[in-house]
């Protein structure tokens, strides 16, 4: 036997539904009337029109050969992927993103203990098996024509982990991958600072 279920709206329930609906409509009217307008996330802040962008080589204190070129290239590619803004030479671009790496350092994360016996005496020492790579930089976005600084940030910092191997070449490769990850994270932050969210 199938039991029929019927729903009866009480007058109180009906009034609550109307009240909720009116509240939502009033909120929408107030939100659009007070200047709050969601905008596309690919529009630059403050109405700045960026038809083209230049990201010059970012100077750094690194003694690693090719670090600056590699780091800058990863940032360019990631920014281009996020923003779709075409690149142009520094003298022709509508905006210029300038960055300077202030510090690069590593900090240990994990250790393993190793024992070695020399002339009958045992020595214990710790070997790092993973480290943080940390990069700190200053950056600013400038309107090339007016020289106006759209945004600037000091001591922006990102970090990534990498494995330390007994093979120096493998460790160097792992560190390079960590550098790439950091550059991508920084590029995403540059993009978010440049593009208007709301």
Overall description:
With 198 residues, the chain is an alpha+beta fold. It folds into two domains: 10-39; 44-194, Lipoprotein like domain (Double Stranded RNA Binding Domain, 2-Layer Sandwich), CATH 3.30.160.150. 34% of the residues lie in helices and 32% in strands. It has three helices and four strands. The chain has helices spanning 11-33, 67-83, 168-194, and strands at 53-54, 95-118, 121-143, 149-163. The chain has a four-stranded mixed β-sheet with strand order 1-2-3-4, covered by helices on one side. Helix 2 (67-83) crosses helix 3. The radius of gyration is 28 Å and the shape is flat. Mean pLDDT is 81; it is low at 2-7 and 34-41.
């Amino acid at each position: 036997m199938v039991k029929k279920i019927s729903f009866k709206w009480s007058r109180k329930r009906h009034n609550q539904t109307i009240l909720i609906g009116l509240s939502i409509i009033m909120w929408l009217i107030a939100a659009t009337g007070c200047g709050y307008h969601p905008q596309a996330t690919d529009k630059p802040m403050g109405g700045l029109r960026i038809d083209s962008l230049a990201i010059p080589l970012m100077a750094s204190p690194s003694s690693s050969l090719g670090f600056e070129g590699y780091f800058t290239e990863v940032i360019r590619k990631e920014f281009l992927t996020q923003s779709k803004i075409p690149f142009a030479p520094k003298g022709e671009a509508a905006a210029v993103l300038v960055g300077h790496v202030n510090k690069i350092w590593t900090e240990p994360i994990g250790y393993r203990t190793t024992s070695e016996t020399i002339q009958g005496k045992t020595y214990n020492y710790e070997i790092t098996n993973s480290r943080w790579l940390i990069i700190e930089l200053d950056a600013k976005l400038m309107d090339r024509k007016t020289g106006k600084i759209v945004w600037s940030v000091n001591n922006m910092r990102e970090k990534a982990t990498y494995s330390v191997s007994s093979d120096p070449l493998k460790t160097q490769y792992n560190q390079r991958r960590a550098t790439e990850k950091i550059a991508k994270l920084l590029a995403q932050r540059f993009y978010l600072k440049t593009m208007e969210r709301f």
